[in-house]
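Exercise 4. Each item below gives a protein and its sequence. For each, produce the structure-token representation.

Item: Leucine-rich melanocyte differentiation-associated protein isoform X1 (Musca domestica).
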Amino acid sequence: MYQNNADANGYNANKKELNLSDRNLRELDTAIIATYGECIEHLDLSHNRITRLEWLYQMPNLRCLIMDDNRLRESHFEKLKKVPLPKITTLTLNKNELSDLDTTAEMLQQIFPNLEYLSLHGNPMCPDNLCLQPFSEFVPYEYAHYRDVLSKSLPHLKFLDHFSLDAKQLPKESHCIKQEKSIQQPIISFSGDLWSKLKNFLSVPNATNSNTGQNENGNRLVSSLDFFSFQHRVMIQHINECIRKETAT
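Answer:
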């Protein structure tokens, strides 16, 4: 979606966004950094194999960073701990290899102290309740504990995974529930206030929106907002189902 009006390298000057998703990159090209580093505000590097991150210091205006599915571990962020990146307010690290909750929380606090929007679905330390990977069955703590640790470490956080932290109703069950050979998907309940926020956050006007995230390559940028939507198919399906229920009432 947000490739429209982009140049050959995937940069959209009007929106100050660069999409380099799904290119099998192992490092960020120095020419790309030199050309766009000062301009970029929104960067999508999902579905690559980038593990060196020092180039982030060459993007002083970056606010939204997508690095889903890069096999990132806590150790890959070590060199960023000395100097924080306070301008980045949106970060998605879905489907990486972050395995320790306390280490990840401390790392995020030191490097990204002003995060408002964070998504960690599909990491071994995340009891995400979406069954994106089998790890969530074996995490020895509930989602509420995971949420509390991260929200205490990141005082500006407003949105974690697929839940607003302002929600009155948050998930009580954290683990995937298996019944025989089927998996029962969690039911997400929305208050009126939370529903309004979600519609604004995700910019999904109705259930027939053609860009519902069925293509899992990359994430789409939400126009006029300060963060990227989390375009993993399972979550979008849940949200669209809620849209259908909401509009039907």
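Check: The helical segments are 30-36, 101-111, 143-153, 192-202, 233-248.
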